[in-house]
Write a structure and sequence with these properties.
alpha+beta, 2 domains, 4-stranded antiparallel β-sheet, 4 strands
Length: about 110
């Protein structure tokens, strides 16, 4: 993953074209970039994010902000009950417990 100004990008290598290409993954708008070297790729990423921000400003629109920190999930009533019980057993509120569990599950 690459990060610039809070925007995260996933990068892949296209062996047939001999080029790296990437896409910002933490917003719904589409920001893509590519390069034939790591340095070129990093600069293209920064340029693409800056271009996106400039484009939004020119149009008088707010750019999409990466990750608000809010995460909505739909559960069955039974799942919700079990999660609340697990949180209470650990001495945490549901948000703190869920955050800890998700953090552990997503650790690289």
């Amino acid at each position: 993953m690459m990060e610039y100004k809070g925007y995260l990008a996933r990068v892949e290598f296209d062996d047939s074209a001999n080029v790296f290409h990437g896409e910002v993954v933490n917003i719904r708008d589409v920001i893509t970039f590519q390069g034939t070297s790591v340095d070129e790729l990093q600069q293209a990423f920064k340029d693409s994010v800056d271009d996106y921000l400039d484009f939004c400003k020119e149009r008088g629109e707010e750019p999409e902000e990466p990750f608000s920190g809010r995460f909505l999930i739909r559960l069955s009533p039974e799942q919700h009950r079990r999660m609340l019980l697990a949180a209470e057993k650990s001495g945490k509120d549901l948000n703190a417990w869920a955050s800890e569990v998700l953090d552990q599950a997503s650790a690289v």
